[in-house]
Design a protein that fits this description.
Length: about 375
């Protein structure tokens, strides 16, 4: 029996995008960011394609994501950068996962795990250069460096990376960009002074947007996320030659004629102005289709774009076909690369007032990923 909805993932497109990003990185190492189930594309198959495309390392938010990669047979270097209470640090060290620390207590926790397991931890230190999210503020940076140097001398922790993250690299010309670059340079100089630097320590700052527009930010490695999936990190500057990897489709569950004046879906936000054919698309907000796509988004059906008609429900929404033919089992394309006229993920994001990251990562587990 055909599944109601499918997210097809073009692995060749991902390989193409990673190769393109590698060219833009100018010789810097490429880390592919595959957190959140590879941005909704399927963790292990997508990660394998990322590595085949030229990335040498992978990054995840959580340790459990990195451990899932190891269980899936991925042997490449891995970095996880969010370590909350209860995270399995011991397991991470035993699996050879590199970890990030932004304060002394967490670095001490990592060192304690190293002593318990007999495995020296490979750690990256994160500096807060102006995003005010993760990272040690520059005022606290010297203390973190001093503790790192002591733990390195003990043999518990090897510092292998120094990094930070941009807040506004996707807004070309934003004054914070240069300010963060300068702050990162300050953090690096302090690390050199403390002896927590050198050729074995990877400096990394650039995200997808910075890879495309900020050569100064390349350093030793770049971290590429959204662009690997073929979605532009700076849409107003175009697609940069990227190829969208995900195509989200569904099959019509029910088609029926209704008379003029028919209210459609909850609240009757839409009332038909003529006799028309409605199609029931069996995917809804429980699967990641935002409820406020109602009346704002379009799909591709029967060779044309059709509006999402009436309120999006938990498991389904309706489209209006007019007098065009439609039958149960016919395919509907919610979004794809746009090559056949279908909406793209960028169009969905623009119409819904969000970013493409949210469009693809929200697609839920009820929708199978098919890789090819």
């Amino acid at each position: 029996m055909a599944t109601p909805a499918t997210a097809r993932v073009d692995l060749a497109a991902i390989r193409h995008n990673v190769a393109l990003l590698g060219e833009r990185a100018g010789g810097a190492e490429v880390m592919g960011v595959v957190k959140a189930d590879a941005y909704g594309h399927g963790l292990v198959p997508t990660s394998e394609a990322v590595l085949e495309g030229g990335a040498s390392r992978l990054g995840t938010a959580y340790i459990r994501e990195a451990l899932a990669l190891r269980e899936g047979g991925v042997t490449a270097p891995l970095l996880s950068w969010i370590i909350g209470p209860g995270e399995p640090i011991d397991e991470a060290l035993e699996a050879g996962v590199e970890l990030s620390a932004a304060d002394v207590p967490l670095l001490d926790e990592i060192a304690a795990a190293a002593r318990r397991t007999g495995r020296a931890a490979r750690a990256h230190l994160e500096a807060d250069t102006g995003m005010s999210r993760g990272g040690a503020p520059l005022a606290a940076w010297p203390a973190l460096l001093a503790r790192a140097a002591a733990l390195h001398a003990e043999g518990a922790v090897e510092i292998v990376g120094l990094w930070s993250h941009f807040a506004c690299a996707d807004i070309p010309g934003h004054p914070s960009i240069e300010a963060q670059l300068d702050a990162f340079e300050t953090a690096l100089r302090l690390a050199e002074k403390e002896g927590v630097a050198g050729s074995h320590v990877i400096r990394h700052l650039a995200n997808s947007a910075a890879v495309m527009t900020l050569p100064r930010a390349r350093y030793d490695m770049v971290r590429t996320g959204i662009a690997m999936y073929g979605l532009s990190p700076i849409p107003e500057l175009g697609d940069f030659g990227l190829r969208q990897a995900m195509t989200l489709t569904a099959r019509i569950a029910l088609a029926k004629r209704v008379p003029a004046g028919s209210g459609v879906s909850y609240g009757h936000l839409h009332v038909t102005d003529r006799e028309t054919t409605l199609g029931l698309v069996p995917i809804g907000y429980a699967d990641g289709i935002l409820r406020h796509a109602t009346g704002r988004a379009e799909v591709w059906a029967g060779g044309r774009r059709r509006p999402v008609t009436g309120r999006v429900c938990m498991d389904q929404f309706m489209i209006d076909m007019g007098d065009d033919p439609l039958a149960a089992g016919d395919e509907v394309v919610l979004f794809g690369p746009g090559e056949e006229g279908e909406p793209t993920a960028q169009e969905w994001a623009d119409n819904l007032g969000t970013i493409t990251h949210e469009i693809v990562t929200r697609i839920g587990s009820r929708v199978p990923r098919v890789h090819g």
